[in-house]
Amino acid sequence: MRQMKVIFAGGGTGGHLFPAIAIAKKLKARLEPEYAADFIFVGTRRGLEYRIKEKLGYPLALINVRGMSRSLSLYNLMVPFLLVAAVVKSLILINKFHPHLVIGTGGYVMGPVILAALIINKPCVIQEQNSYPGLTTRKLASRVDRVFLGFGAAANYLSRKCRAIETGNPVKDAIGKISKVEGRTHFQFNDNGKVILILGGSQGALAINRNILRNLNNLRDGYRVIWQTGERDYKDVAAQAGGKVSSRALFPFTEKIEMAYAAADMIIARAGALTLAEIAAAGLPAILIPYPYAAGDHQRKNAMAFAQNGAAVIFQDEQLDKIDLLSEAVKLLESSCYEKMMVAIKTM
Fold it and tell me: How does pLDDT run across 1-39, given as a tens digit for each residue?
């Protein structure tokens, strides 16, 4: 049987890793049975890809690379040396593996691998999730064979030489295809109450977590919470939430996110591109709190596309000391706006 060899480069956070996993799954399905899919992922020890390497389903090759610190730091002087070493290691990997294609899914992890592929003329493409492309994408987009965009507006920040096409962002096939009954059974919810899903991405969202903790006691009867806290905040949240959230519905991170979307009626989340793609696939209205320090303010731009379409309501980070996100979610669920938002999200 003929082989199709592909290297996937992109990790650190779920926003870069999960698109790579979704692409790999779909590509493998397209290739088989005519071709045997032979895939390798490239990441770092600090990234999410390393923490879930046993569940990744593909071999994981490691490089040592980091992004530039946004503050003045002596560490930034080391970055070019780490980059060169990572490019050399990537060249060795590519020469040994002989991929037919290299796919980058954004972030600094992608940089050395795409650079190495370009040096030895291997076909390579980039999948960019955000409405404002990351630095690595902006630097490399004009040199790769094709750039696939989650948001068409991202092309405005790329070179005119770039061969870009808007495709939307890849998500797990199962999202939006599981029944509410199955989702709620997974979380052992046996009533017909409303469910609010809180997401902070794989890294968590401290400001959102604090707001929910502060107001959890005020959540009305008949409402339940599913809460992905992120790895960093999980222990603190679990200790403070006590019995107010069932242990099954409180977790740092889950590979079964499709069950959470199926069970939910409303989302409270950051506005990362992958999260928004999943929200659209799930067909659920959302309260979005864009991360204020995202590069190029891309989360706010991502969120505006949904809010302008009537599919989401936006609050800013600085408002979280004054509002109750859970109460805001309840207001929307009980208002006539909710049905209009349900219609709007399905057009995204």
Answer: 799 999 999 988 888 999 999 999 999 999 999 999 999
What is the amino acid identity at position 325? L
- Match 């017909």 to its residue by tokens: 192
Q: How far is CA 276 from CA 58, 183, 240, 305, 318, in A?
A: 26, 20, 28, 10, 21
* Residues pairing with 164 in the sheet: 147
What is the distance between the alpha carbons of residues 159 and 153, in angstroms, rounded to a whole number? 13
Omega before 59 cis (within 30°)? no
The helix (H) or strand (E) run that includes residue 4 is: strand 2-9
Q: Give residue-wise pLDDT tens across range 233-282.
A: 899 999 998 778 888 899 998 878 999 999 999 999 999 889 999 999 99
CA dist 77 → 11, 66, 83, 135, 259 (Å):
23, 12, 11, 18, 44
Q: What is the DSSP letter of 301?
A: H
- Give the other-Cβ count within 10 Å of 220's Cβ: 11
Q: What is the pLDDT of residues 47-104, one digit of tens each?
A: 889 989 998 999 999 999 876 666 556 667 777 888 899 999 999 999 999 999 999 9
**227, 198 in Cβ contact below 8 A?**
yes
Decide if 257 contacts 278 (C-beta within 8 A): yes
Q: How far is CA 316 from CA 220, 299, 345, in A?
A: 24, 11, 21
State how far the Cα of 277 lies from the Cα of 175, in Å rounded to an integer. 10
CA distance 279 to 348: 10
Residues 178, 174: Cα–Cα separation, whole Å? 7
In tens, the pLDDT along 172-214 reads: 889 999 999 999 999 999 878 999 999 976 666 889 999 999 9
Q: Give me the long-range contacts of 25-34 (CB less than 8 A, separation at least 24).
A: 25/172, 25/173, 26/170, 26/173, 31/4, 33/1, 34/1, 34/2
